[in-house]
Automatic annotation (TrEMBL), chain A:
Transmembrane segments: none annotated. GO terms for molecular function: ATP binding; ATP hydrolysis activity; phosphate transmembrane transporter activity. It comes from Granulicella rosea. It comes from the Bacteria. This is Phosphate ABC transporter ATP-binding protein, PhoT family. One of its GO terms (cellular component) is membrane. Residues 5-247 form the ABC transporter domain.
From TrEMBL, chain B:
Belongs to the binding-protein-dependent transport system permease family. CysTW subfamily. GO terms for biological process: phosphate ion transmembrane transport. Its main location: membrane. This is Phosphate transport system permease protein PstA. NCBIfam families: 3a0107s02c. Keywords: Cell membrane, Membrane, Phosphate transport, Transmembrane, Transmembrane helix, Transport. It is a multi-pass membrane protein. Residues 87-290 form the ABC transmembrane type-1 domain. The chain crosses the membrane at residues 29-58, 87-112, 124-148, 154-172, 271-294.
Amino acid sequence: MGVGIQVQDLNAWYGSTHTLQDINLHIPANHATALIGPSGCGKSTFVRCLNRMHETNPIARATGVVKMGELDIYKDASPVEIRRRIGMVFQRPNPFPTMSIYDNVASGLKLNGFRNRRIIDETVERSLKQAALWEEVKDDLKKKSGASLSGGQQQRMCIARALAVDPEVLLMDEPASALDPVSTSKIEDLIFQLKSQYTIVIVTHNMQQAARVAENTGFFLNGKMVEFDSTHKIFTNPRDKRTEDYITGRFG
Amino acid sequence: MSSTPMLPPRPPIDFDTPVMRFHRSRRKVTNIVVSGLAILATVIVIAPLVAILVYLLYKGASSLNFNFFTKIPAPVGEEGGGMANSIVGSGIILVLASLMGIPIGIAAGVYLSEFGRGKFLANAIRFTADVLNGVPSIVMGIAIYSLIVMRQKHFSAFAGGVALAIMMVPTITRTTEEMLSTVPHAIREAALGLGVPKWRTVLSVSLRTASPGIITGCMLAFARVAGETAPLLFTAFGNQFWSVKLNEPIGALPLQIYVYAISPYDEWHRLAWAGSLVLIVMIMVSVTLVRVFASRGALKGGN
């Protein structure tokens, strides 16, 4: 089951650039939350702070409190543990090119030392079914490289790979921006189904996409969160003038 | 909603003027000339290699027989004899050198690329590796002579292996570093994002993705030291008799070729040619075997 995330006074820097300023936010469990805003506004940095990927960059640093349920992810757990429990799907599909489709999906389990073949087999099948890719790849799971799939299939494989380690939260950083409309709509259907089991945070440039998949939407601008509310409210009756300007296309 | 100003209509462009036709044919000619130069360069590079191999076959093949691979060298004045001890000795020294040089070389490359970026120690190691790459091989032999042979008070196969291993390390380290730096950052992030620890990401994802290039580097280093004579002169020393012990002087093909080639006897000259042929074939076979073995696990559609 998914779990909610509470963010308090989150600040983040790349070198001397202050990319995130005093973010406060509650992401409810088992809902999809969309983050919108112009390029460079800090949305990606924000989601990377939620699973401590931000700190893999040597010049990056973050302060503040991020709680997953009762767990303070910066104090009470290791980054490795957090990244398993908070999965991530990246903007561009990033399959492991030397691994088969099967090994790509199983990689999170195998590389963590998990050895039970039967459970790995079951997990690979279940995850690929959850990602709506099973029917397309079931015949050459171990024969084909993950990199041989089309872009849309690769991205669904990456979603399956993230689901295979049984995360509670799924972070998606513009998961459909490199894909064609058909693949995009498949990914959106997927998000719709997955949110009953996971808490989903999705960064997107596509406002229709936010409106279609997310219950709540946050608007970021210049490293600050300008407004956070139900998606319906944001798109029909935003409180802030800047939000209104952005969603009506007056800038960005 | 859109406020982009209308651009003035664009005048039509004529792509069929004499000047444009001239440039088109000029590009065609340039293409042919440059392709021809590239082919010529390839031929110039390959031709001496083929010539050497053919000449070795011509000079050495006639002296190759069963005895060459089974007998030890015959004393001066006696007919026959072979290089069995040197062939086995070379094999032992090279296996020893690879067992030491390849793990150390790869480990150092991993440190440079994955852990030491921008650190003083990494820059120092990189500089040392580049300098080590340029050290004449005879100097390496003398260094190992004073470090190992002088202390043990005897020549040994082990000392020869160490000398060759040290010569392999810089090439392997630098290729490993280069190859790891071509692995896209997104692939590492994918592994880290699954909750895979960094050491495991390096071993199972970065190294695995870079492995074809790293294997090439190891093969280059191996082929380079397989024919080295100078570092073995004061370390493995050579041996006219059977020995497979690591702490005793051992025969090696390059040493045996050297001894025979500077001798005054025609029979020994012929054996030196045969030894050279065997050495080159051994290197070619081992490089090919590794390539075939490494490409067997490749998947459809991977890269």
